[in-house]
Amino acid sequence: MTRAPSAAQRRVIDGADPVTGRVRGTEAQLAALVRRGLVFRHPRPPHEHFLTPAGHRIREAAHETPAAEPVGQPAAGTGVFAARVGSPDEAAGAGPERAREVHSAWQGLLELRRMTNADGAVDRPCDWERAHLVRAAALALEAAGHRPAGGQADGYRVRATPQPEAVAVYAPDAQALAACAATLERAGWQPGEYTEPRTGTRYLLASPRRV
User: How far apart are CA 44 and CA 203, in angstroms?
Assistant: First the structure.
């Protein structure tokens, strides 16, 4: 069985940026985490260190609560940023502080694209986004100024789907749905509009673009 990270290593992991996974620590701590496959050192200057998928899993497990929480929501009291996906029990309201958090998270995600896409492209989603589809799509929408539904019916909702690398996006009307599609396309996603056969509801099926 793999030995659990030490208390000092856990502090480094838990202190990682919630969007980019960038970590800070002493050279010894970072080197030890690299050897364990929990952190990688980016090959391009300034050679920052980031969590690997295994490191992200350890960090996210620490914030899980026994009761299921909406996708994209942080565990209560953790202070971890989470894009709003339009869940009924998400926190309502949007003020200057939330706007700053969303802007910072989006800029961090663009930096993660630059650092982890092989060609340094920022107009195309990165591996983190493909591993966190709902949160990534919701962040793109919220950062562009779209309002999440929350407990209301007049905002967007992002939901997981059975299809690989695809999320469903719902909006209150055709105009709002088209605006969401345009935003996702600019953010490097491939959206297509579909109709639910049973209900007739129009929605977007969006996947992160690879090229």
Answer: 40
Q: Which residues of 128-151 are buried (b: 16+ CB within 10 A; e: fewer)?
A: bbeebbbbbbbbbbbbbebbbbbe
The C-alpha atoms of residue 46 and residue 206 are separated, in whole angstroms, by: 33
- Coil, strand or helix: which one is 134? helix
**Band of the pLDDT at 1, cuts 50, 70, 90?**
very low
- Is residue 142 within 8 A of residue 174, CB to CB? The reply is no
Question: For residue 173, how many C-alpha atoms fall within 13 Å in the half-sphere facing its CB?
Answer: 2
The CB density around residue 48, as the number of other CB atoms within 10 Å, is 17
Distance between CA atoms of residues 190 and 182, nearest Å: 10
The residues spanned by each domain of the chain are: 63-208
Per-residue pLDDT tens digits for 165-180? 999 999 999 999 999 9
- Burial of residue 195 (CB within 10 Å: 0-12, 13-18, 19+) is exposed
C-alpha 99/C-alpha 119 separation (Å) is 30
Structure tokens that stand for 163 in this block: 């299809």
pTM score of the predicted model: 0.67
Dihedral sign of CA atoms 63, 69, 72, 74 in order = negative
Residue 188 to residue 104: CA distance in whole angstroms: 19
